[in-house]
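Ticket #4471: structure output looks truncated?

Reporter: J.K.
Steps to reproduce: submitted the chain below (95 residues) through the standard prediction queue, then opened the result file.
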Amino acid sequence: MIAAQSELSMRFDADWMSRADDRILEHLSEAGPDTPKKMADSDRVRFSRQHINDRCKTLVEYGLLVHLGNGVYDITRDGEQYLAGELDARDLEAE
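Returned output as attached by the reporter:
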């Protein structure tokens, strides 16, 4: 438990991020490509499908996710680096 907490504290989130973003990124990192509906149905994400969909679009704008088509999203290398605490999201700019 302590390791997980210290891992989370290493992440540098940005003002544009919401509480759902880390859960979405963690889910996609572990489960692979997925849709907002399936993420909403999972025990890990626990936000509405619409909120997850909105957040996925924002995470795509900042390069942490990629939209694969047909409502399927996947985490990018930058997203993985953010989760590992190797990338400061405050340095990202929307495309």
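Triage note (M.O.): checked the attachment and the full token line is present. The CA atoms of residues 38 and 68 lie 15 Å apart.
Status: closed, working as intended.
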